[in-house]
Amino acid sequence: DDELQTDGNRSGHFRNGELGLAPTNEDVIRIIAAQLAEIGDQFDKEIQGRVVNDLVQHFLNENLSGEEITLHMSRVVRELIRSIPSDMEQEKAMLVLAMVLTKKIVNTVPSLLHRVFNTTMNYMNQQFHNYIVEMVSA
């Protein structure tokens, strides 16, 4: 699987101690990353602090499993997608919302980075794997 970097950095894998670039069109990935970042900036302004604080509390609750937190994140993304007006396709908007929420949670409580990152990756793999593959290959 190739990595999708939303910050425009090159994605690659180490092979025999050397960085080998993933066999993808870097220009396409950079264009997609720039578009997602722009959308994310717009959504960032719309997400209220209470939504982020609620998610932070779920991540801080060690009694909740990763699956339970992933389900909660999924519910929050679905609720936000209904409240934020957007004329883009729903999968793209939901993907960006998940990334923006991750950023906001980690900025609020940096010690949650590992748990939030893993949960977001699981959520994105479960919900958007095919969409991401199609977006990159299109």
From TrEMBL:
<dbReference type="GO" id="GO:0008637">
    <property type="term" value="P:apoptotic mitochondrial changes"/>
</dbReference>
<dbReference type="InterPro" id="IPR036834">
    <property type="entry name" value="Bcl-2-like_sf"/>
</dbReference>
<keyword id="KW-0053">Apoptosis</keyword>
<dbReference type="GO" id="GO:0005741">
    <property type="term" value="C:mitochondrial outer membrane"/>
</dbReference>
<keyword id="KW-0963">Cytoplasm</keyword>
<dbReference type="GO" id="GO:2001244">
    <property type="term" value="P:positive regulation of intrinsic apoptotic signaling pathway"/>
</dbReference>
<keyword id="KW-1000">Mitochondrion outer membrane</keyword>
<protein>
    <recommendedName>
        <fullName>BH3-interacting domain death agonist</fullName>
    </recommendedName>
</protein>
<dbReference type="GO" id="GO:0090200">
    <property type="term" value="P:positive regulation of release of cytochrome c from mitochondria"/>
</dbReference>
<dbReference type="InterPro" id="IPR010479">
    <property type="entry name" value="BID"/>
</dbReference>
<keyword id="KW-0496">Mitochondrion</keyword>
<keyword id="KW-0472">Membrane</keyword>
<dbReference type="GO" id="GO:0005829">
    <property type="term" value="C:cytosol"/>
</dbReference>
<dbReference type="Pfam" id="PF06393">
    <property type="entry name" value="BID"/>
</dbReference>
<dbReference type="GO" id="GO:2001238">
    <property type="term" value="P:positive regulation of extrinsic apoptotic signaling pathway"/>
</dbReference>
